[in-house]
Fold each of these.
Amino acid sequence: MDTQVNKLAFDSGWAYAPAPESTDHVTIDDEYGLFIGGKFVAPAEGGYFDTVNPATEETLSRVATATGEDIDLAVAAARKAYKGAWSKMRPAERGKYIFRIARILQERAREFAAIESLDGGKPIRESRDIDIPLAAAHFFYYAGWADKLEYAFPGRTPAPLGVAGQIIPWNFPLLMLAWKIAPALACGNTVVLKPAETTPLTALKFAEVVRDAGLPPGVVNIVTGAGDTGAAIVNHEDVDKIAFTGSTGVGRMIMKAVAGTGKHYTLELGGKAANIIFEDAALDEAVEGIVNGIFFNQGHVCCAGSRLLVQESVADDVIRKLRDRMETLIVGDPMDKNTDVGAINSKEQLGRIESYLKLGVEEGAQMYQSSCSVPTKGYWCRPTLFTGVSQSNRIVQEEIFGPVLAVQTFRTMEEGLSKANNTPYGLSGGIWTDKGAKIFKMTQGVRAGVIWANTFNKFDPTSPFGGYKESGVGREGGLHGLGAYLKLEA
Amino acid sequence: MSLAAVPASNALPDMSRVTRVDEVGVNERVARFQTRSIKTSSKVDALKMILSMIDLTTLEGQDTPGKVRQLCQKAMHLHDSMPGLPHVAAVCVYPTMVGVAKKALGNRGINVASVATAFPSGMSSRQIKLEETRMAVGEGADEIDMVISRGAFLQGEYGFVCDEIAAIKDACGDAHLKVILETGELGTLDRVRRASVLAMHAGADFIKTSTGKIQPAATLPVTYVMLQAIRDFHHETGRMIGMKPAGGISNSKLAVHYLVMLRETLGTAWMTPDWYRFGASSLANDVLMQLQKQATGRYQSADYFSKD
């Protein structure tokens, strides 16, 4: 397949000059404490750790490590705020605060977008056009529900749960924060949220938004740190609900830890989604969807379409088109407005991805990577696809969480369906066909929480999101997401 | 300009194999091209490239030899106060004006393109269309811009359309054939894709969106679908086919996005006047104004640029 005839050339001639996003409007402090009870405080004994720009390996800021004592303080502040102002406030008033947060996020969108890209390595185009607008949209959406909970659940008496402990991942830092905090606040809960240790900055900046919006102290607390900090939240006696997004491994630990404690929980975990292309699909647009499905955010997406199942009669065409399209992806400086694929989020993650690349080759698969050059500093992985793989390969079974696509073929609809479902995960899926009937049949058969037809990675606050099997428990977004932060008494 | 002419063929391609087009997906992809930020040196390079790809066009019933000569002057001297500018690729006129244009342009390397085949409707007999094509070629036209019979195409008479294109191609001799699909009358992107395949198989050297007489004329989504068809045809046959969006491209920013789309769909081999053209009348001055602005940092009044 490497001797493709009539190859197109994308690497010579007219090229795009650098178009860097300005960072003049961005201020990042040298050091951040923990945001507890409405103000930044120094950590008790955890000290500080660096947060690094993965595109340059430069340190952006130093961030506190919260330990047990800090978590006690944070949960106590949240409890006090819950018992005090927040749960007694008229719901319409509560909604006003959340609307205010949404508006401030919109006003400061450029700043948040820049920080998200600096701290996490994602292209500025994505943080500017997707992450930040969607985060604001979540606050707008749930703000509207705050005084309408009785109508959302007719015949029930909705009541808040209390203090929610929320632990979010590094792939969509502010957006995941919005998914967690917006419904929690709308339902009258208070929160202790821990951002991921590699991407804490937008959450800490969000603390400024909370303060500027005038929320009562303690309603939102932001604590930083790594796994131990998260464990301290999960194991804290006075937390009523745990909401976690992250790996299936950690999800299992959380489920064990909360078992028998009476704590509510929602877990949004890993995925290994299949994009299924039928021969009658609009192939060029399907290829575009595959590319967005796996290379969006460097493949650091739990619902990424990391497996491609393509009907055998069009497999060669699809792979050729895919390779051509991969050649046109611009990999590099996340702050450049033309960058399509940014930096891998951390050194550790790059190591994990590279070990899978090695494994794929050892398993006998053919690896193809786009020929782009990548910067010498920072953490980078070229867009990659594997062909000649089968269900028994680990690169087909396990979540890589990087820009790596495994391509398989199928002959019949049944075979496609069976391969798509033959995974411990079930978060998302994609169906590509021109036939409506096929879409209905496939979407009923694929066991996954969200299935897109002739598109991929479309998000909206009104739509629930969550997994089957090892992809998680519970739903976020939409009415389902609201119910996850309420006691619904009859 | 030397182009390797494509042979004519009236063998009908297998239309059932033509891939489908999803309009929503096309619009999303096109929106991505428009988010590309083209600055500084790449902008200047793009603007100059656009000038060199323009088919400077006048297709009016009121055209006169004087008007055509004036346009030819513009084609040769875009804006002499700015040194280092390219000339346009071609001047595009009605058949009766070919001789005038040919004489005015002399041996400057600027082609004369003539519309033919009962432009813009195409509503005439095969015989008349062939005669008109021969006449334009006889007057010295280097390129023929024909229109397809949209009525026949929409009725599913692909064989008729294919034969007609192949016959016109034969009548062109050494002149290059651009086949105008008039996409504004085709209704769906699926039909645009099919018409593109048909035209390329029948012997088109270029495929072209529009006459400019029907709205909508060229759009980014339509042009994108045609570029995809060219790419697949190139893969199957090894032959490069040129692309000409025409009508409705009147400002530099939009034209730059057309180039971005070209680059990311067909690659850099197509980024020459041999393989890509803009059919436009008012685009050149806007590009000149942008170039002036890049050089001086200021916009000049439109009165500093000749209107022809």
Amino acid sequence: MLKYIFKRILIGIIVLWLIATLTFFLAHAMPGGPFTRDKALPEPILNNLNARYHLDDPITKQYVDYMGNLLRGDFGPSFRYPTETVNDLIARGFPISATIGIFALIFALVLGIPAGMISALNHNKWQDGLSLIVTTILISVPNFIIATLLMYVFAYKLRWVPAALWGTPKQAILPIIALGAYPLAFITKLMRSSTLEILGQDCIRTSKAKGMPKKIIIFRHILRNSILPVLSIIGPITASVLVGGLVIEKIFAIPGLGQHLINGILNRDYTVIMGLTVFYSFMLVTAVLITDIIYSLVDPRVKLTGGDN
Amino acid sequence: MKKSLVLFLVLVLVMTMFVGCNSEPVNEEGNGENEEPNGEEEPNGEEEQSEEDELKVVTYNIQSDPRSVDPALSSTTNENTLIVQLFEGLTRQGPGGVLPGIAEEWTVDEETNTYTFKLRDAKFSNGDPITAEDFVYSWKRVLDPRTGSEYAYMLYYIKGGAALNQIDISQDDSDAKIEEALEEVQVKAVDEKTLEVTLENLTPYFLGLVSFPTYHPVNSNIVEADIEWGSKEESIISNGPFKMEEWKHGEKITVVKNEQYWDSENVNLDKIEFLMVEQGSTELTMWETGQLDITSQNIPVTELERLEEEGVLKKQAVIATRFISINTQRAPLDDARVRNALSMALDRESIVKNVIKAGSSPSTGYVPTGMIDDGRDFRDVGGVLIEENVEKAQELLAEAGYPDGAGFSGFEVMVSSNEKTKAIVDACVEMWKQNLNITNIDIRTVESKVASERRKSYDFDMTFSGWYGDYLDPMTFLELATSKSGQNSMQYNNEDYDKLIEEANSSVDENLRMEKMHEAEAILMADMPLIPINVEGVSYLESERVTGVYRNILNLVDFKWADIQ
């Protein structure tokens, strides 16, 4: 197991390096730079700024310099806000984005797993039909529309919660629901189909025939098996939550990490773009790794080393 | 083990959700205080009773985090709005016009274009007295090319200013040259409270100019100690009605009444909270639910009509013209007849009424309304320089060689990704199609930095642009079309025009200066390198409980005299 984890970490590092390199060259390939303005800056000032930030060095030198700093964990100062380092921005914004993300995931799991199972257990009855309708809607409607709708109904019309900003539990409700909507629908559907599959298996029929109480069948046999596919997609779902968070944060004016990435790109703030992309990638790679490990713990049939199964 | 472990983990996570709900990121927000934070909480009710009884707080949206409040480095309207609350120059614009600020009184020697300002006893927020030397220091700092001030050109009126600022810093001997040029800038402290400045030319609007952030004084001790003082909460020392209390990057800036301000007894507000909400629709909802007192000018266009019907929409005319910028080196737009045809084929009234809405009016010339020419509006004196006549447009187009649009090689309109502009572009293109039978016009939307780059390198045919006046004089607009202007993306180069502008700038006679400017504008409108569409107006929303916010056509927003009912 340890050998496997070590190997995966190594691969993860290589992946991160590749992503960093690709992002670096792509970011610099975009037209314009941090000091391009609508009202053009006078040449001498522009030149001086570019010199100060080494933007006039050859691109390969900039790359090597940057990667060197990266290895030391130094993401560099933001171009647009030179008194802030990217590390500062992450330290400030990540806890907030993570909170929304984690709770959105919890929301999706806590509601989605039971919903999916109930759907499957009541296959073709009204519970199933209702769940199908709701999940289809939540999957198809983009999360920013859901966010705006929630804001309109609950903040504007009903005044149950504040419309935007961050800081109190009430302000967290709408963003979490908006962000968790898609994962909720996805997990519900997945849970439903995997439960249906398990239901059809012989071991379940045998248990029923044996006269085992329904509750025990559900919790001991069905749940444990049908939950496996859900565990396996937590990695990709984390990705969608990370990305979906950008839009949600913008709509609810939440000072998370998302605004920095969006603005970083628009401002051509190279250090911010690089730092945040590497950071997000690291989160994702880690999430996938953890998922695989948990999966192997939960399902004894899975051998991570890729044995005979 | 496994199944129950997983379920257990899920349950634990669920538990933390309920625990978390009580001690959540509220700590981060400093919610350890006994009262709830303003502006971010539930609307009305609770917070109003507890805090508002004692403190008068206004929440305003500046949309995004400013880079710095260093007046020398300001570059956006939002930054300026913040700076105006924190700092004050020799004069301050307010109800009644240009009012004494740090300067109590002044005299002008018209022979030598020298202004002498008498400063009052005023202090910085840390108690340091404000002296004439502070102004000398601050102004020279702005003009020093090493500072990187984007608005340094606002100080070119000072003799020696332009020469200093235009020194090329990449040259080896630049430091020596700069030291020399610094001595040559004609601003000096006669004594602690007397400032003397000599201008290059007669500049009747100079008193208004010195109220602008770029002319604000900064505390030299603070600046010398840390070059980035303007971005750090603890080092921001200012001299205006308010001072910096807290800066939560990306979230909120809080300023409080500055007791050291010379006129602090006339400042009613205790605190202003500047929020950073980028999304217009979110800002609107926040205003409607009471989370925000005053919006920025970013209200979604689709909501304007409804808000106007509800009677809450506030409008402000500003000195700004939206115009179509044409690259005069690109065929077929290099022919003035084509450009004039395009201008004449537009129905500006319709565009303003149906597309733009928000408090604007059709342009009748390049310089917008609001500027004074001998007691009258410059625009009125200049008259109507823009003609709208579809038949004549068609004739001109035929004359240029494209009768009824035949053989017209078309062009591309570069649009910066911005919903409002897009609709206007669509309207114009449609009018050209219908009235001139020109169908081969491409509209290309590009991201704003890409658009800026392309404009800089003249890699475009036509783009929609605009200009907000920096100060209350037609020159701020007319300068843009001179051949050496950095903003002249039209590549317009007309010797007669340049000459008239130069003559206007060096005129000692105000009437003559106005005359030259009118002549220049007439030439410009005959050549049409830029096609004016409308005079801009802005719309915003203000909570009824806030009164006394000073606004003017320079799009200034000043809370000095504001109050809560």
